[in-house]
Structures are given as structure tokens and as C-alpha cells.
Amino acid sequence: xxxxxxxxxxxxxxxxxxxxxxxxxxxxxxxxxxxxxxxxxxxxxxxxxxxxxxxxxxxxxxxxxxxxxxxxxxxxxxxxxxxxxxxxxxxxxxxxxxxxxxxxxxxxxxxxxxxxxxxxxxxxxxxxxxxxxxxxxxxxxxxxxxxxxxxxxxxxxxxxxxxxxxxxxxxxxxxxxxxxxxxxxxxxxxxxxxxxxxxxxxxxxxxxxxxxxxxxxxxxxxxxxxxxxxxxxxxxxxxxxxxxxxxxxxxxxxxxxxxxxxxxxxxxxxxxxxxxxxxxxxxxxxxxxxxxxxxxxxxxxxxxxxxxxxxxxxxxxxxxxxxxxxxxxxxxxxxxxxxxxxxx
Amino acid sequence: xxxxxxxxxxxxxxxxxxxxxxxxxxxxxxxxxxxxxxxxxxxxxxxxxxxxxxxxxxxxxxxxxxxxxxxxxxxxxxxxxxxxxxxxxxxxxxxxxxxxxxxxxxxxxxxxxxxxxxxxxxxxxxxxxxxxxxxxxxxxxxxxxxxxxxxxxxxxxxxxxxxxxxxxxxxxxxxxxxxxxxxxxxxxxxxxxxxxxxxxxxxxxxxxxxxxxxxxxxxxxxxxxxxxxxxxxxxxxxxxxxxxxxxxxxxxxxxxxxxxxxxxxxxxxxxxxxxxxxxxxxxxxxxxxxxxxxxxxxxxxxxxxxxxxxxxxxxxxxxxxxxxxxxxxxxxxxxxxxxxxxxx
Lengths: 344, 344
Hints:
Two copies of one chain form a homodimer.
Chain A: E1 2-8, E2 11-16, E3 28-36, H1 42-47, E4 55-56, E5 61-68, E6 80-83, E7 86-87, H2 93-96, E8 107-108, E9 121-124, H3 127-130, E10 132-134, H4 140-147, H5 152-162, E11 170-174, H6 178-189, E12 194-198, H7 202-211, E13 215-217, H8 221-231, E14 237-242, H9 247-256, E15 257-265, E16 273-275, H10 278-282, E17 286-289, H11 298-306, E18 318-320, H12 325-333, E19 340-342
Parallel strand pairs in A: 11-12, 11-14, 12-13, 14-15, 15-17, 18-19
Antiparallel strand pairs in A: 1-2, 1-4, 3-5, 3-9, 3-19, 5-6, 6-10, 7-8
Helix pairs in contact in A: 5-6, 6-7, 8-9
Pfam families (chains A, B): ADH_N, ADH_zinc_N
Cofactor (chains A, B): Zn(2+)
InterPro entries (chains A, B): ADH-like_C, ADH-like_N, ADH_Zn_CS, GroES-like_sf, NAD(P)-bd_dom_sf
């Protein structure tokens, strides 16, 4: 089959690779009908170490179950399924508590002999624990929204949930990528009144306003912090969501969080150390969030996607076939596209 | 009057200072009947910058109200009162939300013209917001427990509360000082089942066991981490309380916290930067806690102190008069004494 392989920084290709086969009785083979490119994919795409071997890539996909192993019981051949961006056994203590990203037997797509999501098909380990069956649909808008349950919608929800967003809350969201915009949607959904979106791409922040942002701050750094403080009587907001991961975003978060507030980080940190001394302690700032166990949130979010209450799929602004994937990476890296849908 | 003045590192004296006077209509003058020395006092005692001027010190006290300003309404002359370790106006937004340490008009004892607590008397700003009236008592054990509401009991409670300790929880407490031991008590009070106390002073950890610690780990660093992991099937505990503040304690906390768990920091951080990169993010570790708004907790804890359900005053193991204060500092710094009571 054909699947996406990252060969080096800026060099992503669609190569011929071995067809997936059931290797454990808990596996399933899924024929991918929709996948996408993630902001996280841009990190290795931008910075892959030249010493590394080519790697399979892609971690968001949905598709049709083609084959199941002998121990798979809840997933059937022919099911339309969505896969969260990590696989998980569904039975260990961490899966039971809704932290599937820490699953005892879990792992990432595109690593350790497991296919990446940006290809024609995927061998899915722990199919019962990993996959969620969806109602069949041909509606392209609905398919796009369902696909966001794999990662970006669930990640925005994780940000808002771990921050404990509640009715009447004030929230700053740092970053106008897909996760930032869906963090806005998630915070609004949980009842936040005031949502300040920090981002400087007009077309993206407009979508953020459609999702519920009440204010947009385009400035960054000290100027951005000052703007948010001005908007909040000098105090900052109770919740700050860092949907970026760079140190500059963390510093911005520290600058705009209210005393007693919460910073929820869902952007992959691009730093090892961060300011965490007397100032954060003195202001009783909580740092929470982390990699999102999106599998845990699909049941809660799915009904609202199906009935159109939320339309997270609006983050997709470009569609490519398999051959268009290299150009899709380029477009996302150059910020021409917000999020690229792949229809193999 | 006589009051404690820190003149330099290791040089604490009881000096003659001006008698306190009402300077604002919201002030009260409190004649101190019991005060104490805090682990936090040992930081300037150990490291005071030689370039600094002498400073008044002490931030935990109770006593009798001698005089009140014209706008004080809830505190009366003759009341026995306890003061939290910061003063606060009781009316601003932060005070209303129970974060009196961020009060718009609050501040620390012993600074900016306000008396320290280790002296004969104190001018208390914002007496209505700051002080809490207690039932009169001559019972020395009860007085000791009441005095802990000023800081160490409330700080332990803040650690356990911000960490969200709940029935059946597993908790590691790092540090066997008064705050560590009272964090054990607070975690037990909130229903924790398993409380691992990391400390290496036998007499202190024994008191920790009396307060509810189920396990004691005397080892530190990697060995200590390994021991806690061994005690918890390799996983660590859901909650970790850092009652120390050194980087070594933070690293220990990171090492023993379970995926999806919470580190609550109530020890004053002795660092500016800390590890907060991919590992904490990947394990969904929350960092919370901070300086404790003990004023917010007195109403909740007071009944249990009064009826003897909790006896936090057991942390006091030495009593000195004013003249004994320099020796009290020395004894605490050399770990001869756990916590020193001062009866002026």
C-alpha cells in the first residue's frame, strides 16, 4: 500500500510500504477514508535529525474496518471507526481512569512496527480499546467534524477540562492553530463567558470568534500581555490555555494568568525547564494539562458532533489526496493552510 | 516594647523598638500571648544579605486585642485573636474568593512599617479582615493548636486541598518539618488512605505516623524515589506534597508522582526554573499549591481544633520566652527543635 514517510526535515513522501496484516488477535485492519496533518507533525517535519532513519507519520484517522483479530469483540468488519491519536488496551488501570495516553500497552502510530495514519490502511493494536464505532455517514462536513475527535477537538476539550473551565469563567487561549481554536470551542461549550484568543492570523481568529472567542489579541510578548491585562481590569484571566508549546507561549501564559488561576498546556513543550519559582508560587498558579487522552472524550463529544451542536470540522481548510500530502505539509508549515484533510 | 529583629545571617536579637500605635482607623493593636518561629524564618536567618538593613521578623501569632481603630467593627478590645501569616482587607475580590494572600491591600508582617509577630505587641492592619476571634482558653495544648491556624496547619491544609485529596487517595509528603507533618494530618483528614512520609528525622516521622502517615521513607534522591515506587507497585502516588521547596524536593516529587497526578508545592521554592518539559506533560502531571491563604481555612479548621479532633499543636517541641528567641532560631536551624513556641 501507499503511506506517508518522513525522510528528513522538509522531506515527506508517499512511499510504497508493506500492506498491514493482523499480527495479534487483538488487532484490526482499518482502510483509511479520512486522515489529516497535525501541527505536531510539523515539529519532526521542520527539525528531523539527519541521523535518523525515515519514519512513518500521521496519527489522526478514521476509516472502515476490513479485518479483525480473533479476540476483537466490540469492533466488526465494515464498521466506520475513528482512532484516537494513541492506541490503548482499554483495560489497564490508566485506561479505566480515562488516561489512555499512559496505557500500560499503548503507543503511538507510526512507531514500533505500527502504521502511521496518513496512508491507505493501518494495523490497529488493541482494536477494542482503541477504536470507536461511528454511525455511517457520507456527509463531508460531518466526516470532518468526526475526524477531529481523533485529536484536535479532544485536545481542546482536555485543555478546558483539566483547567476546570466552568460557567462564567474567563479564559485566554494562546495560539490560533486548530487546537487553539478548538480550545476556544471547548471552553465556550463548558460555559466560559469571556474568551480572549491570542493569535495574529485574521482568518483563523475569525473562526475562533465563530467558535466563541469574545476578544482577539494579535500582539505577542509583553505587548500581548499588556493587552490582555487591559481587557481584564489588570488581573488577567482565571484560565489560560497554552495551545502552542513554545517558551514564549508559556511566558505569555504566566503573564496573563490571574492570581489563583490555572495554565493548561496542551501544546507539546519545546523546552525542558520553565520559570516555576516564587512568582508562580506566590500567585498560586496551577500548571495542568498535558497530552490529551482523546479516547476518553469521544463518548461525551460524539453526540454533539452528530447533532451539529458543535462543528469542530470547520478547522479544515484544505483537502488533498495521498499524492497531495507533501504539498499539504508545505502549506501547513507556511501557514497557508490551517489544517489539511487527507482523503486517501 | 521588645521585638525580634534580624540583623544579619545567624544574628537575630530581641531589641527595644517603638510601641505600636493605631495609624489607620482599620488597625488594631494586639498584645501577643503566643508566637512561633517558622521554617520560612530560617531562610533569611541563614542567608540574609549583608547589604540589607536589620528587619523585624515573625509572622505567626495570637494575642489579646488591646485597642481598635474607629472603623473596626467585628473585633473588640479584650478578644483573643489569631492572625494569619499575611494580613488582608477581607473585602477585595481576592479575599472574597479565599485567596487572601493576593489581597489588593494585604502584606507581610515585619515589613513596610508593620510589626513582626515575634514581639510584645503588633499593629494589625485591616483588623476586621485579618483577625479571627477565638474562644478564651488557658489550656496550653489548645493554645498551641490554635496558633498553628496562623500558618502551618493552614498551609498543610492548603497543600492537601489544592491537590484535591479525596477519600481513598494515595499521597506522598516530602519533608518532615512542621508543614510536612501537618500536610500528613490534612491529607488524612480529607480521607487519604495511604500516606507516605519522606523524612529522615525519626522523632519527626514518628509524629507524622501519629498524624496518619502509613509509611515512612528515610532515603532521598533516586533511592527515595525507588522506595516510593516499590511501595506503590511502580506507579507512585496520585498526590505529592512538596513541603520543602528545594529543587531536590521538586525532583523527588516528579519522581514519585503517578501519571495523571498532582504535585502541590507549599514550601517556598528555592529555585527559579524547574523541569517542566515533555516528561511532566506526557504524564499529565499537574503542579499546584502555592503560598497558603490560611485566613480562608480558619473557619473550617477551628471547630476540629476546639473539640480536639485534630491536635496540630503537637508540632511544638520547645517553648521560649522573648529572651530565648535567638536560641530558638539556633535550635530550629540545627534541627534540635521541630517548632519553637514563643510566649512573650
